[in-house]
Each structure stands twice: as structure tokens, then as C-alpha cells.
Amino acid sequence: MIENVLQYIESNNYSLQVLLSENGDIGFQRKIFSRFVNYVQYMAKNYSEKTSGEEQNEYYSIYTVNGIIVIVHHWLKNSMKIPRHELVKLIVALMGAIL
Q1: DSSP string covering 50-83
Q2: Which has the closest alpha carbon to 4: 95, 85, 80, 96?
Q3: 79 phi-psi bin (left φ>0, alpha ψ -120 to 50, beta other)
Q4: Banded pLDDT at 99 (limits 50, 70, 90)
Q5: What number of other Cβ atoms are within 10 A of residue 12's Cβ?
Q6: 84 and 94 Cβ atoms separated by less than 8 Å
Q7: R_g of the chain computed on alpha carbons
């Protein structure tokens, strides 16, 4: 999933920079955030030994998603200098460390 999302972001980077900026579409940002949170909650619930309950899972997920969003913003702001597949590896490694 992460690879597909980053591929879409890479292909539509200008539009997404505008939509995800501080002055961008808050509804769009909430929708993206919500989908990421749902995905990360699913991963934590099904594959993590660190989370011990639904409430803790929710906090892990929100923390992780905020980190991913900041990383993607940084990637876009810096003209996607590192290749997408390297960014995917980094995000997956960070998720593994957190979850």
C-alpha cells in the first residue's frame, strides 16, 4: 500500500503539494489521514506485538501516521530527491520500530 500511495504522490506531486499544504484542502487532508490511520491500525492490530489494546493501538497509529505525513511533506518539499523505493524502505523500517 505504501508503495502505491507514494507512486500516486510522485505522479501528482504538484497538485498534492498544494492540497497538503497549510493552506490546502483540510477535507482532503483529513480523508488521507483517516485512511492512513485505518491502515496503520490494521497493521498494528494484526502484526504488532507491542500494542496491547484498542486504545493503545489508536495512539500508535496516530503517532505513526503523523510521522509518515511529515516525511512525505519533506520528500515533496525537497523535490523527491531520494527515490520512491528508498522512501518506502525508510517508512516501513520506521513503522517496524514503532509498531
Answers
A1: S--SHHHHHHHHHHHHHHHHHHHHHHHHTTT-S-
A2: 85
A3: left
A4: low
A5: 11
A6: no
A7: 14
Q: Which three cell numbers stand for residue 50?
A: 507491542
Say how far apart CA 45 and CA 80 lie, in whole Å.
31
Calpha distance 68→54 (Å, rounded): 21
DSSP state of 24: S
Cα–Cα distance between 96 and 48 in angstroms, integer? 9
Query: Using one digit for the tens of pLDDT, what is the confidence trace for 36-80?
Result: 888 888 877 776 666 667 788 888 888 888 898 889 889 988 999
Q: What is the pTM of this model?
A: 0.76
| 17-40 as b/e: b if 16+ CB within 10 A | eebbeeeeeeeeeeebeeebbebb
Cα distance between residue 1 and residue 40, in whole Å: 11
Provide the pLDDT for residue 11.
Answer: 92
